[in-house]
Amino acid sequence: MKKCLIAANGLLTKAELERFTKLNKPRKVIDIIACDGASDFLVKEKITPDVVIGDMDSASAVTMRSITAAGIPVIKQMGQDKNDLEKALDYALSEKYTEVNVIGFTGKRFDHSLNNLSILLRYSKKTVLRMYDDKFRYYFVRNKIELTCAIGTVVSLIPMPKAAGIKTIGLKYPLNNEALKMGKREGALNESVSETVSIKLKKGVLLVCVAVKAK
Questions:
Q1: Separation of alpha carbons 129 and 101, rounded Å
Q2: Structural domain boundaries enclosing 194
Q3: Residues 33, 120: one domain?
Q4: 20 in the same domain as 100
Q5: 191 membership: H or E segment, kind and range
């Protein structure tokens, strides 16, 4: 599976990056796509992106000089009909990545976070998406997923905007052919009672949020 990591220009932390590294293969087999200003964070952490993409209005001049000197490709796209995350996702699809991991998609502004979540939901129809921050990992699920996690791990099921025929195994509050709907009934703050959790659904989409650490 050809993987990449997109670093969006949201809230980025060293813990978030380390969490991604621990949960995935060694860095050498994963290409890193930096969204504009996210390159500042990567360079500070002594991580060299494989490409930088965006309208280039956020990255510092010092970072850009470092990236240019290192011969890293910079793809400048000025169109305002798509944000830098969308441009990076389009690039990932054009390069035939079959799994796209994303960090930095939340944090700085709530409206930006919601907009990025909507974008990621749309692109999750086109490729396998995995999202991370320093507290959770996130998956869009349209059919089924099996998770491995420590007993006592928070597992939230958020309908996007609705999901039906949900069956779960290994959660403290099981669902048996039930429905969730945004604004009506959510499935937040459930908890694993087994090291393996199974979630299936018949219709709709769930955003499955898995805490990094057990309680």
A1: 6
A2: 139-214
A3: yes
A4: yes
A5: strand 187-191
Could you tell me which residues come within 8 angstroms of residue 28 by beta carbon, excluding any fewer than 6 positions away?
none
> Of the candidates 101, 134, 167, which is a domain's last residue?
134
48's CB contacts (< 8 A; 6+ apart) are 32, 42, 70, 72
pLDDT digits (tens, 9 = 90+) for 159-189: 999 999 999 999 999 999 999 999 999 999 9
Measuring CA to CA, how many Å separate 158 from each of 6, 103, 165, 201?
Answer: 23, 19, 14, 13
Number of domains in the chain: 2
pTM: 0.91
How far is it, in rounded angstroms, from Cα 202 to Cα 108? Answer: 35
Instruction: Report yes or no: 103 and 17 within 8 Å, Cβ to Cβ.
Output: yes
CA 83 to chain centre: 16
Q: Do the beta carbons of residue 30 and residue 2 sit within 8 Å?
A: no
CATH code for position 24: 3.40.50.10240
